[in-house]
Amino acid sequence: MNTHLTTALRLATAGVPVMPLSADKRPVANCPVCTNLACGGRPNMKVPGPCTCLAPCHGWAATTTNPATLTALAWASAWRHAGAVAYHPGGGGLTVVDLDHADAIAWARRELPATRTVPTTRGEHWIYLGVMPSANAVRDGVDIKSAMSYARWLGPGTGTMTALPDTVRALIVNKPVPVRPVSVPVPTGGGECRHRAPAYLERGIAMAEQRITAATSGVHATVYRTFLAVLSAHGRCGCLTDTHAARLFAAAQTKGESARHCADAWSNARTSLGM
Question: What percent of the chain has pLDDT over 90?
């Protein structure tokens, strides 16, 4: 049996949701239809395609603890091409503090309670018991991987796992949301907004926020489609601002999306619309 699959089955038995991961740390498409993104999905953007194999097929949402799913024929190609095993920390009741360099590790040793640690290529993973929203770059060299995120399995680590401390939860409180400039072109002919009134735009943004926060599944896809709808309706008249985009990003982050994923989804939606 494939060694990565053997590891995945062992983790699944312990209640940790897992999936195959390529050598470059990207999720592997889980079926032949999705190979080379033939299904239209964007696993690097965490946007699932319309495939029906093991939907959702890509990203953290495809992690599972079901041995039958892990060993299903639809996953055979994925495991053959896998370079590692990834797991969904939040799905296993865990939070990973990803420390990318020596300075970040030194900070953690000063500021955070000791817990289980796992060496990585450049730093360490500190693993705590408890779930929180994921976020990238909460400080220099520090990412949080928990809900709606995945981490590479690098072994069991050493030390006793402790409860998720408030000092880690506080890292994402009031964290500024980086927003890429909208920079949408103003239409020719004077650049007048075609909308009836400013209230029309405000209503549209409020509805978009509600659509994101109401999502109970498929959050990645919901965020992308909502961004696409907002940009399609308001992106070319010049009245959509970074403030509006920041509101949408904030709504997405309350559902566990990282700032990087928000920026990627926004950029991808603009590209799809030719902006």
Answer: 29
